[in-house]
Amino acid sequence: MGVHDYPKLTQKASEAMVTLVSHRSNSTETDSENGDKATPLFPLRAAIAFMGILAILCQYILKVTLSVAIGGMVKPVPQENSVDETCPLPGSANTSSSNSEGGEFEWDEVMQGYILSSYYYGYAGVNIVAGYVAARYSARWVFTIGLLAAGVFTVLGPVCASASPVVFMITRILVGTFSGVIIPSMHVLIGKWFPENERQRLGGPIFSASYLGTVISMALSGTIVKNLGWYSVFYIFGGVAIALVIPCLYFIYDEPESHPRITEKEKDFLLTHTGRDLKESKEKKELEKEDEIIRNPWPAILTCPAMWTHCLIGIGGGWVNYTLLSELPTYMENILHYDIDEAGLISALPYLFGWMSCSIYSFLTEKLTRRGVHIMTLFRAWDAVSCFGPAICFLALTFIDCDVPAIITLFVFTMVFRCAIYGGSYLNHIYLFPRAYGSAAGLYLTLGNSTGIITPIVTSAFVSGRETVQQWKYVFYVAMTISFIPYFVFLIFGSVDNHEIKWEERREKRRKQKTGP
Question: According to the 3-state scheme, what is the secondary structure of 381-428?
């Protein structure tokens, strides 16, 4: 195929995508009379959900890749401990592997901790701004520009790593910054594109794509590093992120009424079942410009105890997630003595089972709410699983020492229990602030993701220069404690009530005082 054939191929691909999303039925005359555009094979909101899954999957691949690749980038760090203080070599361990020689960079474990955490400086810092800007202006453009820039800076990673660790850290901060806008934008799109009874069911598959992305990254990164070189993972995965921008721009629009390929039937359905109707939508857009909740939601959000409780749950879950996400491959290599590709594959197992369980939790929540179970009851139940389950698993790990099958099983159950949050209170901020959910989501994600900055530094403080079974127990004790304590606060202050109502009442009272009765 020549270069001149590429435009034709692109045109055919575009036509195929159009046919997939919108297929005109045989009864064309009937459609014309009804004013409908086309009979879809599946609703456009399903395509938006699928693009959200792919983008979040890709974002987490870019996030996690370094956790595995860094083992092939750095030279081995001399340890103070003896071999007896780690676990015995497994039968499958290859002590003469090329990985034993290490990579080209002389970064100690403290430097590695800062490099691993650098992504999260940008990732956590941008969530609040991203949620607000996406809600106020355009979730579509925030979403796609973030994905594109994250891919570009990932591709630049190897060049920057060769320059200096500081330059590489700056690159990772930028990757984190642009990656950090994707999930807040998706929260905004969910509020506009999915009726309330679909949010819990679809929220699980969409946001659990983070676990699938982790699985793919951990399973493939080690093999790619071992066979193609550590720099290859940055080129391959960064290139995939860049390519994904094109279908995202095609399918994703800010709201149903602005999408050029939506049917009138689906548009009317969505405007009605997301709290808007077609007649009022344009008027509401104008009113929102003057709406205090949209323009300045922070007094309402920052004075809401239920919102801070929601954030504490996010911090506890984030600590569990990032302890495993950033440090599990290192633990598998240095304590259990697995080769880099084996460590990546085994580290992927908890996220594989976690990803499969996410949809189950959200599906059960939807079914039970339809049968009349109050959503707050389900939040309390699933959050208990999410907070206490990982804590019990971490405690058990401190008693097992070197029983490798049991250790891997406990890591798997840690993530399976952790994922119960997707049937629980993960989308609690949408209930608390039905219109200002973009900013509320930003605060929740910022505080939860800030643990990604802290966990690698805390872990390196415990294990730097002395990677022993005992030192790793301290890492597990900390994660266990931070996991379960927020649940007790949630039992006292947790809520699903609309907290914008009181704010609106106070605002209306002030208006009446100014204008008179």
Answer: HHHHHHHHHHHHHHHHHHHHCCCHHHHHHHHHHHHHHHHHHHCCHHHH
- DSSP-assigned letter for residue 105: B
Q: Of 1.20.1540.10, 3.40.50.620, 1.20.1250.20, 3.40.50.1820, which CATH number belongs to 42-76+104-278+285-515?
A: 1.20.1250.20
List the beta strands (DSSP E) in 66-193.
none
Average pLDDT, the chain: 79
User: What residue type is 434 in one-letter code?
Assistant: P
Q: Lowest mean pLDDT: which of 400-414, 475-489, 501-515?
A: 501-515
The closest of 420, 452, 455, 426 to 440, measured between CA atoms, is: 426
State how far the alpha carbon of 256 is from the alpha carbons of 46, 204, 270, 285, in Å.
Answer: 12, 22, 7, 13
Residues facing residue 74 across a β-bridge: 105
| Residue count of the chain | 517
Q: For residue 77, what pLDDT is reported?
A: 59
Amino acid at 293: I
pLDDT at 37: 44
Q: In 3-state terms, what secondary structure has residue 74?
A: strand
Tell me 90's DSSP state.
Answer: P
CA distance 455 to 463: 12
Q: Report whether 307 contacts 381 (CB < 8 A).
A: no
- DSSP type of residue 136: I
Q: Mean pLDDT over residues 180-200, rounded? A: 82
Q: Which two tokens stand for residue 29?
A: 């005359």
Domain range summary for the chain, segments of one domain joined by +: 42-76+104-278+285-515
Query: What confidence score (pLDDT) does residue 272 get?
Result: 77
Specify the pTM: 0.68
CA distance 273 to 489: 33
Kindly state the DSSP code that residue 257 receives in the 8-state scheme. Answer: G
- Reported in sequence order, the residue ranges of 21-98 that DSSP labels E, i.e. its strands, are 22-23, 39-40
At 249-277, the pLDDT tens digits run: 998 888 888 888 888 888 888 877 766 55
DSSP notation for 274-289: TT--HHHHHHHHHHHH
Q: Rounded to 5 degrees, what angle do the CA atoms 165, 170, 172 make? A: 90
What is the rounded distance in angstroms from the CA atom of residue 193 to the CA atom of residue 285? 16
- Mean pLDDT, rounded, for 46-68: 88
* Residue 163 to residue 173: CA distance in whole angstroms: 16
CA angle (272, 273, 275) in 5-degree steps: 75
Q: Write the single-letter amino acid at 164.
A: S
pLDDT in tens, 447-472: 888 888 888 788 888 877 777 888 88
Q: Are 278 and 268 in contact (CB under 8 A)?
A: yes
Contacts of 10 (CB under 8 A, 6+ apart): none
